[in-house]
Every structure is written in structure tokens, then in C-alpha cells.
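REQUEST ID: PR-0412
SUBMITTED BY: lab tech R.K.
PRIORITY: routine
TASK: structure prediction, single protein chain
INPUT:
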Amino acid sequence: MEPLDRVLKPKTKRAKRFLEKREPKLTENTKNAMLIKGGNANLTVTGVLKDIYALKKPFAVLYKKKNITRPFEDQTSLEFFSKKSDCSLFMFGSHNKKRPNNLIIGCMFDYHVLDMIELGIEKFVSLKEIKNSKCPEGTKPMLIFAGDMFDLSEEYRRLKSLLIDFFRGPTVPYVRLAGLEHVLHFTALDGKIYMRSYKVLLKKSGCKIPRIELEDMGPSLDLVMRRTHLASDDLYKLSLKQPKALKPKKKKNISRDVFGTTYGRIHMKKQDLGKLQTRKMKGLRKRPAERITEDSEGISPKKTKSA
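STATUS: complete
OUTPUT:
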């Protein structure tokens, strides 16, 4: 096996293009995921990996051969596969007596494991068991998270971040109404995580806005959290660091409110409104009596001499 840290020099144009795709970029590519089956995976775990692969395609790689490895004890094999397939996300499925129907979901930073969370499958309904129409391949899903635990607990907060990275798909500049046809709903309740997948049906409502109905599409998972391997705060902060070129330049005297409205501040000299030139109209001219009173108010009256 060749060392992963050796410097590669391309010998052909094809190899050069291949290495250029893997170079660091200002705008990150869509994250790919690798789905790995453990050495003792059963039918339930294999079915979960196949269904997740069906939702994640084409940004996923499914390894069909069994890999005898334990991610929480040794992570070198995961890092090797991540470097080989250029995947920054992974899902590992295994099954044993101590931890039955086990799923490990995690992410990489610089081809090293950053966060890793172990989940147990308590209930699973596959795509084939639900006899409804499915969404086309590559559909970008809408992600919904329900439950206070996703905001209160640090482990659930990291799990939410992992699930968003795993299922969000490519970044798109525009959204069309007909393209919003897949919903992934995650609920954290009583120590369990419920994953549900729905297809959005647009029905007639008698007006421009259609009536929306959700139809269960599958897969359906009831999960429970087991072990966690979270990165330190310093390493996690380093992984979230953005390059300076992407940071927006601050413009002076321009601010935005919560709704995105832009406000600008203009600096002007102090104006004397008394000298403001207005439109001259006959009806607005001062009468002679008004001029006399203004003149008399401006001149201070003489003091009368006391006798």
C-alpha cells in the first residue's frame, strides 16, 4: 500500500485534471458519501445502506464487499477509503450481539475523522415495502428537524449538522415549485431519532397556491444514539474556518435588517429650512398685514419713562 501523504506529480493530462479536481477550492464541491458494509452485516443493515444510497445518488459510493474494521477502535481504513474515493462523509453498517443493527455516521476533515456518531436501528421499513411512487434520482430533499434536543444537546447538535451535510445535496441558485417534491423529516423525542421520508403531492386548491399533501415514500427508520466520537472545540472551529476571499467585504454606512432590507446612511451638511426654495403660488404669498406683524415682532418696543 502506498503512503497517503506522498507528493503526486501528474505524468499525463488526464492525471493532471484528476488532481486539479481534488485541489482545495474557494467554493466547496458537493460532498460525496461512502457507504461501507461491515464484516458481519445482516439483511437489515444491508437494506438500510442500499436505501440511503438510493436517496443520496449520484453523490455516493456503495461498497458491496464486506470490510472487517471497527471505526471506533481503528480509523485508518476509513481514512484510506476516503482518500481513495474522495469522500468526506461516510456511513458504516455492522451487526453483532453487543450492538445489533448498528450504524455509524461521520464526516472527515483533511481525510481524517472529525465527528462520528453511532446509532442503533430499532425499526426499519424499506423503500420496497411502501408501494407508492418514488422521487427521481438526484432530487434535492427538504430537511425538517423537530425536537428541542437538536438545540439543547451538543451531541444532537452535531448529529443534526452531520445529517444536513449528508442529505442536503448540491447548492442551487434557483428553486422551482415543481422541484420541491421530497421531504426528509427528523424528530428527536424521548431519546430516539425518527427518520421519515415523504413525497410532496401538489393538488388543486382553486387558487394559485396549490394544496400540499405528504405521501409516505420510505425508507422509515427508528434510531437510538449509542456511542459518540466528537472532535475537540479547536479542531471543530478550524474545520469551519472560511478563506478570506469568501468573506464579504464590509461596506461603510450600509446595514441590513432581519428581513434583508438594505439601509444606507447619507451624510449631509446641516440645512436651513427657512431658506428652502419652494414653489411660488399666489395663494401662499404673505398678506401686507402679516408682514407688518412680523416686522413689529422683530423690533423690540421702547421702554416708557417712569414719571
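NOTES: The chain has a mean pLDDT of 84.
REVIEWED BY: pending
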